[in-house]
Structure formats: C-alpha cells, structure tokens
Design goal:
The structure holds two protein chains of two kinds. By secondary structure, chain A is α+β, with helices and mostly antiparallel strands. Helices cover about 30% and strands about 35% of the residues of chain A. Chain A is built from eight helices and 18 strands. In chain A, strands 1, 2, 3, 4, 5, 6, 7, 8, 9, 10, 11, 12 and 13 form a 13-stranded mixed sheet that branches. Chain B is mostly helical. Classes of the chains: A alpha+beta, B mainly alpha.
Chain lengths: ~325, ~190
C-alpha cells in the first residue's frame, strides 16, 4: 500500500511550498500547480497524490484558525537548548576570554561566567542527539528526559527519566557528573550509557572509566564493564563481551536484542518505544524469546508470536493482547 | 474542471472523514490499514466525480467504502474469515452526526489538543509559523535550527493536524451538495 508514502511526499511538497510563502488561507491547489512546474509534474496523473495533497492542504489552511489561541511564543521561553548553536558560540567565546584573562594574570574582575542550562526530552519512539557547548554529546533514547547545567567548575546532567548515551569531552579540570537518582556517575572524559528505571539504574561503559556512586558505596568502572545499582544503592558489577556492549547500546541504531528473555519483559521493552502497547496474559508471560527487532516493529514481533508460536493476538485501540 | 472537483472534494468529502473512519474501523479488522483504505476511498470517489459530480456525496462515499471492503475480502481470501463478519450485512449509511453549530469550535479544540500532543520541536515550529506568522527563515532563526529542519517539522505537523481534523465529527452536509452542484454549472 502506498498511502503513507503518498502522504509523506505530499507533506514534503506542501512544506516546501509553504516555506516559499505560497500557501495562504484561500490558496487553491490549481494556483500552486500553476506556480511550480516540478510540483505539477509530480502531481500529474496521480489521483492518489492529488487527494493526499488536498487533504493536507485543507488541514494546514484550517490550522490558521490556531491564531485565535493565546499561545506563548516558544522562542521567548528561557530554554537555551533551543539556541544551542548560539549558546555554544557564546560559551566558547566566554571561555576564550577567561582563558586569555588567566593566562595574562589579569586580576579576576572578569564578570561571572554565564551558566549554560538546558532541558531535552524525547517522546515515545523518538531518539535525539544534542551537543553541549563544551563538546560533549548526549543521545537520548525513547521517552527520556535530561536537564543539563554547565558552569565554570562543573558539568552536571540529571537523567530524570529513561536512557541516554554520553560521549563526554575530556576535561580533567571539570568533572562531568550524571545524576540518575539511585546512582551518580562521575567522569572525566569517556563514553557510556545509563538506563534509569524505577527500581534500578544500569550503567554501561564503552570507553574510558567512570566512578559510580550509590547509597551503598561507590566503584570505579572501566571500559567493557557494567554496573547495576538497585533500590538499596547496592552496586552489582559485571564484565561484558563486545557483543553484550553492542547489544546494550543497540537502541542507538534503533534495535533491541533479546536472548532467552521472558515474554513479559520483552513486552515491557517494546512498550517503551511504541504507542501501541502489548499486554501479555500471565499464561504466556514466561515463554522465553530470543531475537533481534526494530524498536518500532511491534507488528512484526506480534506476527511472529501468532504465526511462529501460535499465540493469539487480539487488537484493541492501541492495545495488543497476547494470550494462548 | 480539475478545480471544481477539488472544491467538491474539500468541501463535501473531507468533512466526512471522521464518519468514514469510524465506518472503516467498525468493518475492518486491522487498524493499521484504515488510513490506506481511507485513501483508496478518496481516490475512487475523486475519480468517479471527474466524470460527473455526484448528487449525494455521503451516499457515494459510504457505498464506495463498502464496495472497497467487499473487494478486499474477495481478493484476499486469507483475511476473509475474520476481517468482515458478514459482508452482506455491511450498512451503506452511517447515522447522521452531531450538531453543526459546534463544528468549527470543535475543530479548533481538536487542533489545539493535537498541538499539545506534538513533540516539542514540531509544536514550537507550528506555533511560530501558524500563530505568530513567522516565515520559515525567521522561525529557523528564532529557534536556532536549520531551515530544512523547520520544513521537515512543518510537514510532520501538517500530517498530524490533518489526522486530528479527520477525527472531528461533522454534520451531514446534504444541503451543500446541491449548492456546489449549481456552482459547477454543467
């Protein structure tokens, strides 16, 4: 079926025409066709494309009605992340000034350093990468939230929800800490991932080393090791093979791996990424599953359950019930 | 000619989307395929209207949907048992819906609630473009993102808003059919 493709193409075309300022409240499709030969070519002879364009165009024009709403200008909100390019430039400039000032032994009448703060969040199924002004990178997995605060002495990130991968720019003089509730991670420059759940925090180190601190103590982790911090703050260390490492961060490539994992847990994992939620009846919750799936391919997984394992899948509105 | 069929489609067919979608959902098992079926219904009625604008749009849309489902069931034997309980029992009409006075307000409400559901960046971009009336480059500047990014989110926002509007129930538009026929001439 071609509907999704027709719709995507149609929305891309309309967004382009909209960018050129051609779409007004009463602009007719014929006019748009007359103004752009390429668009006319694309549209010609395809009723599927035409109806998709008409539908989206009409919706976008109706959306002019939104102007009646009293909505705050998002650009005026104090969220520097949205202007990270500018903020980064400003920060680099400031650090340069400070560095020069220190080097010349100028007395410390330099104005106080500006603080960089930002919030980033992803919706279910989204993945997003953000660069921090000092060169570190944070990659957020599905349904995750972080807040960042960087000043002259510290680089602090709070992982409030979900899972993130950190590529930390090396700065021996300014530690980079991640607060994940049950555990706090302190690093100087390295790459690692943290998964924050209700009952535990899992930390996986890909390169370099980090210190992890829970209520029950602290430990140093080197590359290829993982730590699980439980609700009591106990830290459980494990060695990971290269394959384990790849799998632990497979979400960065939009995939998840299971090896001999109970169906209930597999469902939970899929549910992190998709709006359509899997519910597993207790009769089948303990069936063990192995495999490698796209995080958004819950349909393929369900087909496997019904065709491959002979389980019954019933559909509700955004819900999939799996029973024997 | 093309223009008038377009008008007919926007004014007469699109407002039936919520009712059509409900009809398809009730009579087709796989939720994933509803959007595709809807699109196919649209293409079929548009094609039919090119020869001659129909007198009763609502009847045409639902008869087309019904025929489409029947076609699919016959063609793909696999789904025949569970997809449609009883083909012949498929109704051709659905009930007439709601109160016309509230339509435009409920559309605004649907748009607003869809806006709230959008990912933050898409929402910001739609707000700047639609509510603040910024151009694409102004929007890009304000948010510190590139113009292609703005364009991508505009496309995405557009699709989401269309789906939201498609869920708003509109009244049957029996009267407008005769009006637009007069406008068509012959």
């Amino acid at each position: 079926m071609t509907h999704r493709q027709a719709e995507r193409d149609a929305s891309a075309w309309l967004a382009r025409l909209d960018a050129e300022g051609r779409i007004h409240a009463d602009t007719r499709l014929e006019v748009l066709v007359g103004e752009n030969r390429e668009f006319a070519e694309w549209l010609k002879g395809s009723i599927e494309r035409r109806v998709a364009v008409l539908r989206l165009l009409s919706a976008w024009q109706s959306a002019d009605r939104l102007a009646a709403l009293n909505v705050e200008n998002p650009a005026s909100r104090a969220t520097p992340w949205r202007q990270s390019g500018l903020a980064a430039a400003a920060a680099i400039l400031l650090f340069a000034i400070v560095a020069v000032a220190l080097w010349r032994n100028v007395p410390a009448d330099v104005p106080e350093l500006e603080v960089f703060t930002a919030n980033l969040e992803t919706e279910t199924g989204e993945r997003e990468t953000a660069s921090l002004p000092e060169g570190s990178r944070i990659e957020l997995n599905t349904a995750s939230r972080v807040s960042v605060r960087i000043d002259a002495q510290t680089r602090r990130v709070e992982l409030r929800d979900g899972e993130a991968y950190f590529d930390v720019a090396s700065e021996p003089a300014r530690a980079f800490t991640v607060d994940a509730g049950l555990a706090e991670v302190i690093v100087l420059g390295t790459r690692f991932a943290i998964d924050r759940r209700d009952e535990r925090v899992t930390l996986t180190v890909i390169e370099g080393s980090v210190r992890v601190r829970g209520a029950g103590g602290s430990a140093v982790l080197t590359a290829g090791r993982s730590a699980e911090v439980d609700a009591d703050g106990r830290i459980d260390l494990a060695d990971l093979s290269q394959r384990d490492l790849d799998r632990a961060t497979a979400w960065r490539r939009g995939r998840i791996y299971f090896e001999d994992v109970p169906l209930s847990q597999v469902a939970e994992e899929f549910n992190r990424y998709n709006r359509a939620k899997l519910f597993v009846h207790e009769d089948v919750a303990d069936i063990h599953i192995g495999g490698n799936f796209r995080t958004d391919n819950v349909e393929g997984f369900v087909a496997l359950l019904s065709d491959g394992l002979g389980l019954t899948v019933e559909r509700g509105n955004n819900v999939l019930y799996v029973t024997r | 000619m093309g223009v008038s069929v377009d008008d007919w489609f926007v004014l007469e067919v699109l407002p039936l989307e919520a009712a059509l979608e409900r009809y398809l959902r009730r009579n087709w098992r796989s939720v994933d395929e509803i959007a595709d079926l809807r699109q196919e219904v649209y293409a079929r009625v548009y094609r039919a209207a090119q020869t001659r604008l129909p007198e009763h749009t609502r009847a045409l849309v639902f008869a087309t949907a019904r025929n489409l489902i029947v076609d699919h069931v016959r063609r793909e034997r696999v789904v025949s048992i569970e997809t449609v309980m009883d083909i012949d029992a498929l109704p051709v009409f659905t009930e007439a819906e709601t109160d016309s006075a509230f339509t435009s307000r409920s559309e605004l409400r649907a748009l607003q609630s869809e806006l709230d559901k959008m990912p933050a960046r898409t929402r910001d971009i739609v707000i700047l473009r639609k509510i603040y009336g910024y151009s694409q480059s102004e929007t890009a500047n304000q948010l510190g993102v590139s113009e292609p990014t703005v364009e991508r989110h505009v496309g995405r926002g557009m699709r989401q808003l269309a789906d939201a509007l498609g869920r708003v129930l509109n009244p049957g538009r029996k009267t407008t059919t005769s009006r637009s026929r007069k406008e068509q001439g012959s």
